[in-house]
Specification:
The structure holds 2 protein chains of 2 kinds. The longest helix of chain A is centred in the last third of the chain and has 55 residues, at 369-423. A 6-stranded mixed sheet of chain A has the order 11-10-16-15-9-12. Chain A has 3 domains: 2-49 and 368-530, Multidrug efflux transporter AcrB transmembrane domain (Multidrug efflux transporter AcrB transmembrane fold), CATH 1.20.1640; 59-149, Hypothetical Protein, Haloacid Dehalogenase-like Hydrolase, Chain: A, domain 2 (2-Layer Sandwich); 210-338, Gyrase A, domain 2 (2-Layer Sandwich), CATH 3.30.1360.200. By secondary structure, chain A is of the alpha+beta class. Chain A has helices at 2-24, 30-40, 45-48, 59-80, 115-125, 145-169, 199-207, 226-232, 292-304, 340-352, 369-423, 429-458, 463-495, 498-530, and strands at residues 42-43, 50-57, 85-91, 104-110, 129-133, 139-143, 176-180, 188-194, 212-217, 241-248, 251-259, 264-265, 269-276, 284-290, 309-314, 317-323, 331-337, 359-367, 426-427. Chain B folds into 3 domains: 12-41 and 218-390, Multidrug efflux transporter AcrB transmembrane fold, CATH 1.20.1640; 48-124, 2-Layer Sandwich (Alpha-Beta Plaits); 126-206. Residues 403-415 of chain B have low confidence and may be disordered. Helices cover 60% and strands 8% of the residues of chain B. Chain B has 12 helices and 6 strands. At the A-B interface, strand 18, helix 11, helix 12, helix 13 and helix 14 of A face helix 4, helix 5, helix 6, strand 6 and helix 8 of B.
């Protein structure tokens, strides 16, 4: 009995030491103690201040881009196979994320005699798509469901990586970028930026699609307006061209007719940096260099087109137009930027690559550091006030046994905090709600046991027997209450979102710790008190 | 000390006044919900923009509302921050068009900018060419002072200037995000009198800070979050029902879940009557309350089961009454202590915890009495009905719930 008790005590003391180490480490000074605690306990953004952004990847954009590529390829393949597609190709325009799977390419006016060749061509060259007839002459192509899934997954992953690169290049402290919810159905990304910052600026940088391309300018124009340009072309643009506006330093420089097929795209970019614009004082520019492969292509193209014009197009705007003087191999620039920040931001997004699809902000919460500090201060103060009140009442009501309960309660809190530290879990406001319920249930477990012991003593049992019976009978009640709550936490964890999950995790850890402290530790303390005595006539409870 | 030694109250004999009280509260709450068209959801659940702005002195709420109404497409709600220790904070809420207009998110972004600009024009002096220290970030501050410091002959490296700026902003944030006199900065380490002169030249203090907190949520996300929270809670309730069914008897599970449901409805109803918002933190409080109330009910059920297994004399009414009396001391102690802790949170927890602790204060009271006056009567009523149908003797034996636990305390786990 005595030996058994010693082993139990060793287990308890060891657990406590491990837990305390988990929270405070090995501090050598008060300052070190504070910094260790701050380092080990991860506070959520709602407590320490910071910004929390939820954004959604517009996967339908990637599907459209994919369909455009398919159309390009279809043109080529039908030409080589001599399949006449009289009415041309066309795709639909899915507007929302949900519509992504409805992406469809239509082939108008296909020569009926070539139907079987067309079928085998699609099977061979477009394994991600299925072909079906609309009528005798028109066909539609749809993306296979498995390919849509893959496209979604890839697009979200790529966006995640790009955003991560961008956020990291901003040099903020401990930002996190992670998928949020189900990548396929929700396509959401969560960005958390602790501490002070400029969330509006970060949002701009994250959201820049930054699709850069260098294209050939057709040898006419520029025109003042798009209408004028369209008029000059007789209302119809030549095949494979588009009209884009040249914007420099916020002012329009006219509309140009450019080729749709780029010579160079953002993927050929090797590096980009900001510098002052040598041509216009007070302005800035972003210069970039190309990869080897891109440089080779660029050189070949410029060699063949000396005297013609090139345009650097970013997203939907032309950012610079230049006449090719000689063969250029590996660099280019975008000038006329109004500030160093604009130039630096552009360099950053070019360096980190384009997003495969646009993004949309769903949620944006910023807690200022001052409110965070106030919350922590008030939270800690009120928590301690509540705890002290509970301790005082317990000590008055249960006397020495109350001390027992207070010890178990403190130990429970230490265990819970230590578990959060070891798991690297984040403590948020809902997490604190979980802690409060844990403390409530811990108090309850002790009260249950003590009331049971009192009852047993009243019914005439000896002290030792009463303590045993009290713990024994209360045990199953404690199991039932705890398991019920843990079961509900499982559901909250599986089906709930972020904050609800945080609540569930904290509560489950707290309840497991409570079974250890309220039942095991508390019993050991009683045993110590009663051990070695053959006749116990009084128990302070 | 013992308050309740051997009590013998006839709880179930007096159940009707309580059940009527419950009905009145539930119906009142539901009526309020019906009249107001559902709960008043927080920004996370309905979408929109919410900003907390702190002023140096009690702000003119009416004035803020008027100037903002002029620039925003729909009138904002402006009110003092509930539960704040001083009355200097206001919450500005701007709704969002939830009719599915495509650019609700851009609209939110625009509204936020308009609010910030309008506040600056109304309460600050954006035209004076100085930096507003109460609304600046450390980066803005360091960029602003780096050249003037050099001109004033304060030789600091770029890194030192950044550190100084961070220290100044940190000082401001630890003082509620708002300082009223630039001279207050004297306490900041590393700030020499010379540098202070530069601060006086380059910056001023607007009598407010808009950087307390801001939140904008698209309308669709709000709806998603709402349905997700509700379905997770309902599934959790179903999970508990199944467990209690397995451990006791199905009617106990039903009784417990109805009781918990009753607590939640009443709390939401009272929030509606008091015109308080159901925010994400209030949801956390409701979850806490569900756990608490369930715990309370199971303790009593456990005792009922134990007493039935001991074959106590009397009908189920007597067994339930006896069980409630036996656990009365623990009920009062536990709920009293938990109430004490939650009350501390309500009184001193600050504005962020206000809705949260209020929900718990209400919930603990309701949750405690629902175990006795809602959950137990349901079990009793069903057994009475079942007995009548079987036309058996009204007296014992009442069947003991399926015994999952050993009848008499097994101490093996406790040892």
């Amino acid at each position: 009995m005595q030996r058994n008790l010693t082993i139990k005590t060793v287990v308890i003391v060891a657990t406590v030491l491990i837990c305390i180490f988990g929270i405070i480490g090995l501090p050598t000074s008060v300052a070190k103690l504070q910094s260790n605690i701050a380092h080990n306990i991860h506070l959520g953004l709602d407590l320490k201040g910071g910004s929390h952004l939820v954004l959604q990847v517009q996967v339908q954009d990637a599907a459209k881009a994919e369909a455009d590529q398919v159309i390009e390829l279809l043109r080529e393949e039908t030409r080589t196979r001599n399949i006449l597609v009289a009415g041309g190709f066309d795709r639909n325009d899915p507007e929302t994320l949900k519509d992504t799977e409805n992406i469809q390419v239509t082939l108008h006016g296909v020569d009926p005699a070539k139907a079987s060749i067309l079928r085998s061509m699609v099977t061979e060259k477009f394994p991600d798509w299925t072909l079906s007839g609309l009528n005798a002459n028109d066909y539609k192509m749809n993306m296979k469901p498995s390919s849509v899934l893959e496209l979604k997954r890839n697009t979200v992953t790529q966006s995640l990586q790009t955003i991560e690169k961008r956020v990291n290049e901003l040099g903020l402290t401990e930002p996190t970028v992670q998928a949020h919810g189900d990548p396929v159905t929700q396509s959401e990304i969560l960005v958390e930026l602790p501490g002070e910052g400029d969330p509006a600026h970060v949002k701009e940088i994250i959201g820049a699609t930054a699709q850069l391309k260098i294209v050939e300018v057709k040898n006419e124009g520029p025109w003042k307006t798009a209408q004028e340009a369209l008029g000059a072309k007789g209302g119809i643009l030549p095949l494979n061209t588009e009209l884009r506006e040249f914007v420099s330093a916020g002012a329009s420089g006219g509309w140009y007719l450019i080729s749709r097929t780029p010579v160079i795209t953002g993927q050929d970019m090797r590096s980009a940096k900001a510098a002052t614009d040598p041509d216009s004082p007070g302005r800035w520019e972003t210069s970039f260099t190309l990869s080897q492969d891109g440089a080779r292509r660029f050189e070949r193209f410029t060699q063949a087109n000396i005297g013609n014009r090139l345009a650097v197009v970013l997203d939907t705007q032309i950012r610079s137009v230049a006449t090719i003087q000689s063969a250029i191999s590996d660099s280019g620039r975008i000038n006329g930027l109004s500030s160093d920040q604009e130039a630096n931001d552009l360099a950053l997004v070019l360096r980190t690559g384009a997003l495969p699809a646009g993004i949309k902000y769903l949620q944006d919460a910023t807690v200022g550091p001052s409110l965070g500090l106030d919350s922590i201060r008030e939270g800690i103060f009120s928590g301690i006030a509540g705890l002290v009140a509970v301790i005082i009442v317990m000590l008055i009501y249960y006397k020495k046994a109350g001390l027992n309960a207070v010890l178990a309660l403190l130990l429970n809190t230490i265990l819970l905090m230590a578990a959060l530290c070891y798991f690297g879990a984040t403590l948020t406001l809902p997490g604190i709600a979980g802690i409060i319920l844990t403390v409530g249930m811990a108090v309850d477990s002790n009260v249950l046991i003590f009331e049971r012991i009192r009852e047993e003593i009243r019914s005439g049992k000896s002290i030792i027997a009463a303590v045993d019976a009290g713990f024994g009978k209360a045990w199953w009640t404690i199991v039932d209450t705890h398991v019920t709550t843990i079961v509900s936490c499982l559901f909250l964890f599986i089906f709930g979102s972020g904050p609800v999950k945080g609540f569930a995790v904290t509560l489950v850890i707290g309840l497991l710790a409570n079974v250890f402290t309220a039942v095991f530790v508390s019993k050991v303390i009683f045993d110590w008190e009663l051990s070695g005595k053959t006749e116990v006539t009084e128990l302070s409870i | 000390m013992e308050l309740f030694k051997k009590t013998n109250f006839d709880f179930l004999g007096h159940k009707w006044p309580f059940i009527i009280a419950s009905l009145v509260l539930s119906v009142g709450g539901l009526l309020s919900l019906a009249v107001k068209g559902g709960p008043k959801y927080g920004i996370e659940f309905k979408g929109g923009l919410l900003m907390t702005v702190r002023f140096a002195s009690k702000p003119d709420v009416e004035k803020i509302r008027t100037v903002l109404s002029k620039v925003l497409s729909q009138p904002p709600s402006v009110q003092t921050f509930e539960g704040a220790s001083d009355q200097n904070e206001v919450e500005i809420e701007v709704g969002v068009d939830s009719t599915g207009r495509k650019d609700a998110d851009a609209e939110l972004e625009r509204s936020k900018k308009l609010v910030i600009d309008t506040l600056a024009q109304t309460f600050g002096q954006p035209g004076n060419g100085k930096l507003d220290l109460n609304n600046a970030t450390a980066i803005q501050l360091s960029q602003r002072i780096i050249d003037p410091l050099q001109r004033a002959g304060v030789s600091l490296s770029v890194q030192q200037v950044e550190e100084l700026a961070t220290a100044v902003i940190g000082f401001r944030d630890s003082h509620g995000g708002l300082i009223t006199k630039i001279d207050d900065l004297r306490g900041v380490p590393g700030l020499t009198p010379q540098a202070l002169t530069v601060f006086n030249q380059e910056s001023y203090l607007a009598p407010y800070t808009a950087a307390r907190s801001s939140e904008s949520v698209g309308p669709k996300v709000g709806a998603d979050l709402r349905s997700q929270a509700i379905s997770a809670t309902l599934l959790a309730l179903a999970g508990m029902l199944v467990y209690i069914w397995f451990r006791f008897e199905w009617v106990y599970g039903v009784g417990a879940v109805i009781a918990v449901f009753h607590d939640t409805i009443i709390t939401i109803g009272i929030f509606s009557i008091m015109d308080k918002e159901i925010s994400l933190t209030v949801i956390a409080a409701l979850l806490t309350l569900v756990g608490y109330s369930m715990n309370d009910t199971i303790v009593i059920f456990d005792r009922i089961r134990e007493n039935l297994q001991l074959n106590k004399r009397g009908g189920l009414v007597d067994v339930i009454n006896l069980s409630v009396n036996q656990t009365l001391s623990r009920t009062v102690m536990t709920s009293g202590l938990t109430f004490l802790a939650v009350l501390a949170l309500f009184l001193f927890g600050g504005p962020v915890l206000h809705g949260f602790s209020l929900a718990l204060v209400i919930g603990i009271i309701i949750g405690t009495y629902s175990s006795v006056f809602v959950a137990s009567p349901i079990v009793l009523a069903w057994h009475d009905w079942a007995d009548k149908r079987r036309k058996t003797a009204p007296e014992v034996p009442v069947s003991a719930p399926r015994a999952g636990a050993p009848a008499k305390g097994s101490v093996k786990a406790a040892k």
